């Protein structure tokens, strides 16, 4: 009997590891980082990691707590992920802001404020208006009270607007779904807007982030043979680093990826992290996502 159970267990484990995910994991939960008085808060660069792909995605962030510190001049900061729109698809970025316990309200306010100048320069926009309020969060559902005209602008625009809100709020461990009217009971989650993700999503580094070599690049992708390519470009367009990795799932399903890319520049200055797919037809770079960053030179 023991001889029969062992092969059966192996089959079950393999099947679980290869199960396709529509959206990948939820990405990082907000992280509180204490700062000293007068310090300027900047997003923290991800810790270096190897390029060895994992076929099993990490646990989704709803199981993670959100460490925050009280408001005040020495209250620390919190980093939140915001989902904006680029070319009719969802695109994430990160903001590091003064810490608050009202993280959902903070995120909705930032969505309505729209992209920064650097984010707008690479095509990010927002469809979310000011005035969206969270009425309550219970049993994993955030019930909202949207302002009048929230669903105006046509079906496609209204759906992108809702997708921005859903993908942004569900980064928090207490929110898995969002109800856009507080009384009808209907709610939606990330999977309901999975078709609004581009072929390649880059969750890190974020636009304008200072990075050091090797830089860690994370996100999710649905690309040919799950192969995600990355290169680092200097300010003059020279390629100063390149690598590739494999997403947890490939053609026909979306999987998370994580890669590290070493680079070498003489002086600290602007650069670009470019994530792309190599075309199976002609070898060209397709589905390119360019993230402007600051490349820190090695001392």
TrEMBL record:
Disordered, as annotated region: 23-74
Regions annotated as coiled coil: none
Pfam families: Germane, Gmad2
Protein's UniProt keywords contain Ribonucleoprotein: no
Species whose genome carries this gene: Micromonospora kangleipakensis
Ranges of compositional bias, category Low complexity: 23-54, 62-72
Keywords: Signal
The protein's name: Sporulation and spore germination protein
Domain of life assignment: Bacteria
Region forming the signal peptide: 1-21
GerMN domain boundaries: 104-192
